[in-house]
Every structure is written in C-alpha cells, then in structure tokens.
Design goal:
GO molecular function: phosphorelay response regulator activity; transcription cis-regulatory region binding
Largest sheet: 5 strands, parallel
Organism: Paenibacillus oceani
Distance between the termini: 51 Å
CATH class of the largest domain: Alpha Beta
Number of domains: 2
GO cellular component, one term: cytosol
Protein name: Response regulator transcription factor
Keywords: DNA-binding, Phosphoprotein, Transcription, Transcription regulation, Two-component regulatory system
Structural class: alpha/beta
CATH topology of the largest domain: Rossmann fold
Length: 233
C-alpha cells in the first residue's frame, strides 16, 4: 500500500529531523522544507497528503503558506507546529484553513498520532461516500456539501464533524464527545470545537446567527436537526 506523503516545513533542522524520524517510523513518507518559499516550490511540483507547518520563518512564513494554499484552493490538511502560544494565533490559523495546532515544545509521539488521525479523516472510508439528511447531501469523497443553493467545499475537520452529526441526527453530542471523535485525543479543547462549529454553520446555514441545522444545547453541546425547522418559503 502506498505510504502517505507529509511535507515538514520548519527552519530548525533539529525539529525537522525529529519529526521526520517519528513519521518515517510510522510508515509515513516525508519531504522537508526549511522555509515557506521552499515549501511552495515543492507544492507547485508535487502532491502531498498533509503539511506540518511552522509559522515563524524567513523567506515566506507559515501565514503566507496558508494564504498560498487558500489562493490555489488546495484542501491539503495542515497541522501548525509553532512556539507561538497565543490563542489569537491559533484562531487566526484555523481561520486560514489549518486543521490543528501543536505548540513547541511538543511530544513527537503525540504529533505523529495527530498526523495519522488527520490522514485517516482525509482519506474517505471504503463505505458509501454520500450521506443525506434533509436537503443536505455530504459527499465524503469530494469533501463537499451539496445544498439546494449550490455546492460548497469543506475542510477535513469540517467534514468529519458534519459526518458525525449527519449519521446521528437528533442526538445531542457534548463538546467532549465531538472533540474526541474528530481529533482522536483524550485532551479536551472546547475552543477548537466552538471554532469549527462556527465555520461549519457559515457553510451550511442560511443564517448562521439563527442556525436551523446545528442547534446549540446550552450547557451540554450540539445537536443536528436536519433543517427540520427551516422555512418553507
């Protein structure tokens, strides 16, 4: 079976070698770049399955790489690996399309687990690729949601979260349950769940401020209601 291909982008050689060693021990092929410019050059010539990306680099930084991915409409999953610990940095990178954020110093074993978890989500399972609920159809293979008004692309995290809801409409999920299902980790980060719920609502709801698909159950979590309250006008 073909090994997944991960691009490691970091200007610290020791970090690159550490991540490379653990990923290759996990049967993951890697390429390496010491700057954002070098990373973009690789992405222009090769297809990668996932990117591990530092933010603070000379000659095109991590933010600019995220903007490049957006401008090319590349849905390659990205894990940020950065010494920056500020919450606003995490929120900003998630808003630019990153799927996860790991701060330095870090556990290489945990990073490898996160990489593998994200790769599993990015590669659709062998069973049915389309899930329908109400007027929404989620195409797992294309990572797209089909609405009466058109088709919208989802990130791997958004798709994983939507699939969880659509497979069990009406069930109330706690934030802890959602986090563990999507990120496959025991550590709980409520903010990550909130951020991606907001992203998802902006893509599937007619009015994200008054959601008709993903309901907030105050003090508990969220529930997918399949648009059953949507206006028939």
């Amino acid at each position: 079976m073909e090994q997944p291909h991960v691009l490691i982008v970091d200007n610290e050689p020791e970090i690159v070698q550490l991540v490379k060693l653990h990923l290759r021990n996990g049967e993951i092929h890697t390429s390496e770049a010491a700057s954002g410019r070098e990373a973009i050059s690789i992405l222009e010539h090769y297809t990668v399955d996932l990117i591990v990306l530092d933010l603070m680099m000379e000659n095109v930084n991590g933010w600019e790489v995220l903007h490049y991915l957006q401008s090319r409409q590349l849905n390659t999953p990205v894990i940020i690996l950065s010494a920056r610990h500020l919450e606003e940095d995490k929120i900003k990178t998630l808003g630019l399309g990153a799927d996860d954020y790991v701060t330095k110093p870090f556990s290489p074993g945990e990073l490898t687990a996160r990489v593998k978890a994200l790769l599993r989500r990015y590669k659709p399972a062998m069973y049915g690729n389309k899930i329908s609920c109400g007027s929404l159809i989620y195409d797992r293979a294309a990572q797209q949601i089909e609405k009466p008004t058109g088709t919208i692309s989802l990130s791997p995290i958004e798709g994983m979260m939507l699939e969880l809801f659509m497979r069990q409409p009406g069930r109330i999920f706690t934030k802890q349950e959602i986090f563990k299902y999507v990120w496959k980790l025991d550590q709980f980060d409520s903010n990550s769940v909130n951020v991606y719920i907001n992203f998802l609502r902006k893509k599937i709801e007619t009015d994200p401020a008054n959601p008709r698909y993903i309901e907030t159950i105050r003090g508990v979590g969220y529930r997918f209601v399949g648009g059953q309250h949507e206006s028939q006008n």
